[in-house]
Every structure is written in C-alpha cells, then in structure tokens.
C-alpha cells in the first residue's frame, strides 16, 4: 500500500477515526495501531509478515533475557545472538547474491571459471529499516540506556508502526517507546500541522519526483544517446527526484504520526541549502546518519584520537552507509566519494563551520554562501550519478560523458512545467527553511483566505498531474 494511492486515502481516515474513538484507552489504541500496521505491511506481501514477526519476537525476547542475565558473559551471548541473526537475515535477503557474484567475478578475473549459485528471493520491503529499529533497541538495552520492554504490543508497535515501517525514519527505542507507553489525547494544532506536512510530502512525491521519472530514466539507461548538456540536466533532475521522493515520504510519515499524537524523528533539514558536504550529511537522511554516528562511529572512537583514527572512522561509516543502501558497487563507491569530501573537511577543520541553517536571520544568502551552496549541490549531483546508475560501467560512462564539448550545446527539452514546479519547490523551501518543514512557516502569517487558497492550489496540483502510482525509491533499500 503506497502513501500516494487511493487505497491509502481510505485506509488512513479509517485508522484515524477508530483510533480516537477508543475512549482514550491506551491499550486499545496501541492494539488498533498494531493491527493496522500488520495489515499495512501485509498489503505488500503477507508472507513476509512471518519474518517481521520473528525479528520482533527475537529482539523483544533478547531484551528481557539480557536484563535477566546473571553474568556479563551470558548478557553478551544474548546480545550477539540477536545481532548475528538480525544481520544474517539482512545478509541473506539483501547481500548474498552480491557477495556470490562479486566472488565469482574475482575468480574469473584470475582465469578461474566459477559458477556460484545465487538465491532467487524477493527483498522484503522495509527489512533494512525494521532491522535497524530492532538493533537500536537491543544495543540500548545492552548498554543500559533503556530498560527492557515487558509489553510485546508496545514493543511491536515501536518496530512496526505503519508510517515508518517500510522507509523510516529509523527510530530509537529511547525516543519512540516512551511515547507509545504514554496516554495520548487528540491535539488539533498538532494534527493540523501533520496534515500540512502530509500535503507538502505528497506534493514533493507526486508533483515533483513522479513527474521527473519518465524523463530521467531513459537518460540513465542509455547515457551515450544524449549530449553532455542533457546528461547534466538529467543528473540535476534526478537530484530533485530523489529528494522529492524520499523527503516526501518522510514528510508523509511524520505528518501521519502526528495525527495519532506521536512525534517521529526529523529526517530532512533542507539538505540542498548546505554549504559543505559535512553539513549536507547533517541534513540528509538524518535518522540513518545519526544511527551510524551513535552505534558505529562513537563506539569506534568517534572524533577522539589522532587524525588517522578520525579518517578511518569516517570512511567506515560512509562505506557502511553506501552498502546499507544497496548490494551494488555503485552504492559503495557513492559512500566512498562522500567520505572523501567529509574527510577533507575534517582535515581542514571546516566540518563544523556550518551548524545553523543558512541565512537564518536574512532573506537571502550572501554571495559567498550562494557560491558554497551551489558548489556543494554540484558535487552532490555528480555523486548521485553513482547512486542512480545500474552499474559502475554505466556510472563512469555517464559521469565522463558530461565533460564533453557537447556540454555547451542546447540540451534536450524538458517540460517547462517541471522546471516551474521545481523552482516553486526551492522557493517555498527557502522561505520555510527555519522550521521542520516548509509549510510549518510559509502561509502561517497570511490571511486565512489566502492561506487556504495556497493549500488548495497545492492540492489541485496533486490531483491535476498524471497519477502514475510510482513506488518510493527507498522501498528498495
């Protein structure tokens, strides 16, 4: 069930009204949300419900067993048992074929013929996300940051809450579980804010991302058929496609959770207004970046120690981040490229220069800030080529073909409407950059008739564009 479908438009109001009709009974509310979440997931493929349930039971039981352990050794055994099984499932479904094929290619490179069998399995939707939810809980219980949860319903809801189940944000037990256990009452202001965030998320997904797909896909599939100028425009448009797609999903998920009195972690903070790559990674997919920071980077030593250790730790988390995104060398190389630019910022001691949003107290950026934003965006666009390409050879072909004399030719025409709505996106996000999402600020001080006219125009644009029901990009991860 996709957020941008008619079935979800029926599903969400039903869940909402039954939830708040539960007479503020917390147990009934949680049971209803849990049932709705399992139904939501079963709409993808009901067979994978058993894997989801097993993973949930494993980590729930592990938490209790670790807390009741009589020795540190016993506690450590339970901890590593959960970690190994969780990563084992992730490895089999997501990475087994990658390792098998890579090993076969290596043997073939040395003249040894290899025919290594691969698995014909479907990647369970959301497995990377709910596995990381469970791992964060197990690690936090192991490190005694949180007590083991004794209510299976509450714990299962933390893992499977339907807005975040298939593409995040990646939640922490320390943040979400206390909200699940706390009585919730309807708050009109929070719900209205949630609806505005859902509206903006749908706009980014349906009007921006989905409409870009038909024009970008042919360019990435056959880069040699297009001029360098068209390749450059295609790469730029993909940058807006993936941003509109994934940040749009996050907005819908976070806004939906607010309808139920639950606040999820922020996942995007206007990353394309970043002035360097270190700032970009503080603003893009925040829940994943912070997960790797807290559970990998800091345990490795973080920023402590000499420069060599800092470089090593940054390289490790970015390679892991690339690998998390997909079983392809393109993702790993994409992670490596990002690591290089962040490492350069660390070595030059500029990685902490831009902690606040750009031009926070001004209407426009300075010339220096504008150049920094444009440069960072350009680097991001070039790296997105490796993220999007189907193989390393296609990525190299695409990237190298941009630096051709045909860069100075007129590109293939893109629809003017796409350029218009993308410009509209940038303007609205710039105006609303001081808040968690653009519509939390834009329009709030306007007269009511003007504000509602603005919302209706966005709704009409969502309904007016061709509906393609395009799947969210991050579902494949």
Describe the structure.
The longest helix has 38 residues, at 72-109. The protein has 17 helices and no strands. It has two domains: 6-185, no CATH class; 189-275 and 354-476, no CATH class. The chain has helices at residues 6-20, 26-45, 49-67, 72-109, 127-142, 152-160, 173-181, 188-221, 228-259, 277-283, 286-297, 307-325, 329-347, 367-388, 392-402, 416-431, 448-464. The chain is mainly α and 477 residues long. 40% of the residues are buried. Helix 1 packs antiparallel against helix 2 (26-45), helix 2 (26-45) packs across helix 6 (152-160) and helix 6 packs across helix 7 (173-181). The mean pLDDT is 91.
Main attributes?
mainly alpha, 2 domains, globular
Compile the SSE list and pairings.
Layout: H1 6-20, H2 26-45, H3 49-67, H4 72-109, H5 127-142, H6 152-160, H7 173-181, H8 188-221, H9 228-259, H10 277-283, H11 286-297, H12 307-325, H13 329-347, H14 367-388, H15 392-402, H16 416-431, H17 448-464
Helix pairs in contact: 1-2, 2-6, 3-4, 3-5, 3-6, 4-5, 6-7, 8-9, 8-16, 8-17, 9-14, 9-15, 11-12, 12-13, 13-14, 14-15
Quick overview of this protein structure:
This protein has 477 residues and is mainly alpha-helical. It has helices spanning 6-20, 26-45, 49-67, 72-109, 127-142, 152-160, 173-181, 188-221, 228-259, 277-283, 286-297, 307-325, 329-347, 367-388, 392-402, 416-431, 448-464.
Question: What general form does the structure show?
Answer: globular
Strand % is under 5%
How can the largest sheet be summarized? Answer: none
Distance between the termini: 17 Å
* Total individual domains: 2
Order of helices and strands: HHHHHHHHHHHHHHHHH
The total count of strands amounts to 0
């Amino acid at each position: 069930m996709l957020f941008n479908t008619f079935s979800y438009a029926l599903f969400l109001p039903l869940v909402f009204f039954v939830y708040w009709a539960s007479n503020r009974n917390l147990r009934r509310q949680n049971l209803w949300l849990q049932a709705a979440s399992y139904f939501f997931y079963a709409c993808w493929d009901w067979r994978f419900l058993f894997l989801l349930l097993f993973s949930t039971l494993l980590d729930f039981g592990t938490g209790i067993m670790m807390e009741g352990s009589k020795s540190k050794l016993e506690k450590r055994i339970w901890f590593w048992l959960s970690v190994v099984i969780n990563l084992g499932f992730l490895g089999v479904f997501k990475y087994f074929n990658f390792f098998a094929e890579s090993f076969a290619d290596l043997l073939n490179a040395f003249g040894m013929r290899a025919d290594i069998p691969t698995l014909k399995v479907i990647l369970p939707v959301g497995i990377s996300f709910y596995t990381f939810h469970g791992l964060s809980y197990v690690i936090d219980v192991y490190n005694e940051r949180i007590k083991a949860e004794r209510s299976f319903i509450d714990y299962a809801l933390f893992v499977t809450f339907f807005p975040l189940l298939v593409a995040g944000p990646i939640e922490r037990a320390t943040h979400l579980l206390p909200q699940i256990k706390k009585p919730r009452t309807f708050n009109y202001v929070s719900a209205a804010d949630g609806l505005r965030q859902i509206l903006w998320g749908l706009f980014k997904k349906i009007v921006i991302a989905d409409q870009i797909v038909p024009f970008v896909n042919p360019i990435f599939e056959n880069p040699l058929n297009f001029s360098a100028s068209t390749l450059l425009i295609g790469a730029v448009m993909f940058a807006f496609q993936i941003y509109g797609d994934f940040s749009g999903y996050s907005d819908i998920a976070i806004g939906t959770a607010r309808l139920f009195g639950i606040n999820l972690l922020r996942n995007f903070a206007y990353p394309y207004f970043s002035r360097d790559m270190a700032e970009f990674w503080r603003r893009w997919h925040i829940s994943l970046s912070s997960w790797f920071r807290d559970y990998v980077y800091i345990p490795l030593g973080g920023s402590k120690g000499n420069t060599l250790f800092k470089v090593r730790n940054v390289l490790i988390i970015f390679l892991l981040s690339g690998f998390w995104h997909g079983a392809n060398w393109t993702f790993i190389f994409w992670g490596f490229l990002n690591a290089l630019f962040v490492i350069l910022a660390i070595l030059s001691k500029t990685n902490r220069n831009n902690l606040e949003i750009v031009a926070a107290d001004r209407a426009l950026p300075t010339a220096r800030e504008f150049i920094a934003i444009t440069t960072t965006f350009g680097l991001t666009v070039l790296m997105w080529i490796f993220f999007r390409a189907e193989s390393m050879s296609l990525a190299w072909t695409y990237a190298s073909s941009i630096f051709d004399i045909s860069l100075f030719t007129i590109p293939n025409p893109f629809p003017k409407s796409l350029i218009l709505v993308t410009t509209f996106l940038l303007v609205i996000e710039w105006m609303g950059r001081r808040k968690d999402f653009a519509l939390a600020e834009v329009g709030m001080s306007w007269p009511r008739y003007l504000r509602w006219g603005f919302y209706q125009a966005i709704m009409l644009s969502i309904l007016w564009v061709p509906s393609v029901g395009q799947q969210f990009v991050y579902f494949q991860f």
